[in-house]
Amino acid sequence: MKKTLRKRHRREKYFKSLGLASLCLALLFLGTIFGNILITGIPAFFRTEILAKAAPSDFLNPHAKYALDEEKKWMTASDEVDMYYKNDETGNLTPEQVKTIQSLEAHDQIRLTFNGAFLTHSDSREPEVAGIWGGLLGSLLTLIVTFLTAFPLGIGAAIYLEEFAPKNRLVHLIEANVNNLAAVPSILFGLLGLVAFIHFMGFPRPSALVGGLTLGLMSLPVVIVTTRASLAAVPYALKEAAMGLGAMPLQVLFHHVIPAALPGIVTGIILSLARALGETAPLLMIGMVAFIATPPSSILDPTTVLPVQIFNWSRSPEMGFVENTSGAILVLLFVLVLLNSIAITIRKKFELQNVL
Amino acid sequence: MSFKIDVKNLSLFYGDKQALFKVSLGLPKLQTTALIGPSGCGKSSFLRCLNRMNDSVPNIHIDGKVLLDGKDIYAPSVDVVELRSHVGMVFQKPNPFPRSIYENVAYGPRIHKLFKNKSALDDIVETSLTRAGLWEEIKDRLQQPATRLSGGQQQRLCIARAIAVSPEVILMDEPCSALDPIATAKIEELIDELREKFTIVIVTHNLQQAARVSQKTAFFHSGHIVEAGETGELFTMPKDERTQGYITGRYG
Fold this sequence. Notes:
The complex is a heterodimer.
Chain A: H1 2-41, E1 46-51, H2 62-66, E2 74-76, H3 79-87, H4 95-106, E3 110-114, H5 117-120, H6 133-164, H7 169-181, H8 186-200, H9 208-232, H10 236-244, H11 249-277, H12 281-285, H13 306-314, H14 320-355
Chain B: E1 3-14, E2 17-28, E3 32-36, H1 43-49, E4 60-68, E5 71-72, H2 80-86, E6 87-90, H3 101-112, H4 118-131, H5 135-138, H6 151-163, E7 169-173, H7 181-194, E8 199-203, H8 207-213, E9 216-221, E10 224-230, H9 231-236, H10 241-247
Parallel strand pairs in B: 3-8, 3-9, 6-7, 7-8
Antiparallel strand pairs in B: 1-2, 1-4, 4-5, 9-10
Helix pairs in contact in B: 3-4, 3-6, 4-6, 6-7
């Protein structure tokens, strides 16, 4: 007995340390990725400026060159100067140009300031003036369309399937297929969007409307599955109590079942929206990959979204886009964390109301 | 003898499996009838037929008649919602709604629109809670969540909730099986008082409880009623061997 007991305790310890080790490994990976993005991304929020009167015109951003006559003291430096000043990357600069920068530095005629334009400007061919506003706004509009598609359709389908549908073969077939759809690669939904919304319905091509509808279709199965799971988790005793008092099926549903299931439903929706926010592949399929330098003013305007913009930037040859890519990823991550914390807050709030 | 509910030749099938075999039983008005018998004998199924709680069970089939004041509750013209406002139910495990105490009691009157104004509703809530013997304990915290009450209080709240729609019959499905002896004693006392206004049918595994609270007892065994009669008689002079075996604890 004593012998086997020691053995059992040892096995317990062994298993615990195994779990701890895998957790540490996962944290290490996460830390490496996050640290890397942070280190390369933070400089994107700063830009190099040169005192206008001292600046050689080939050191300035092409647009800043034309503005030289104006009363502006500090002007945005070109990508190459920016890279050299931030990271000591010589790139295509000649030794003389490097010397000039060093002398500007010595005379305090070159400086680093907060790059507000990164958040307020839209995309550009020049990394030093490119920003994420267009992509951010596009993502927001797309997400609204996604929500308006997936929320009513998903909840409606889930409620019907869970509470009202007869239990026959056809319904079982539909249920099985909804579950399978949740695992279908997202690019296939892009294909579906391309055929259904652009070729068949003729909606304007790289617009938030088409992108949102496509992502809405993609989120639909996930919303249905999570909503059904939360509806099914409502204790039968609660429904029975209401039925025993003579509540109609619809009253049972709206007074008791849905309020009890709401935390799960809301969490499911926000998490699927978060997934839609980070989705790239289906949007490439419907032509949202185009370079668009103006922020959209409606859901019908040509639009790009944040992840697609990140994808585009990551393929650009200019050095400056490397840090822009990481900077945009930081913003995307921030929005995702924000969405997830909203989901957690809402769930906590509703859970409290239900349990207490 | 006038029966509030008269069950005639009731058979119940779950798919191919028959759970009740042509059961007939009269439930006397303003009395408590206890249904006893071993687990799986069909007494709960029988009880749930009395307010058609079985309707939502898939593949169920019911034959026979259940007459409430002479009218068959399984007739096509009967609205099940109206029926349940006449025949209330209290379940095995206390199942208050996750809302305030007040809202729990007010829910039934609200969905059936049984009141004219807020103060009338307040009155219904107070009377129901008083009848359920809970008013004194919780009158200062009506807005508190019902789930914070103790198990016994929750069960009495469920009884108050059932009373609030002024039913004529109250069905109780082992209402004390999840409660401690003190809470059980309170509920039994309550059942005795409620008999003045309501006809009560109670399913119980506790034979002493059946003997204490009921005037009539029916002994179920594998889907049949073996014996039914006045409680005192059934417990002291059972006619059937199986009844005797069950109440003396020789099998069950």
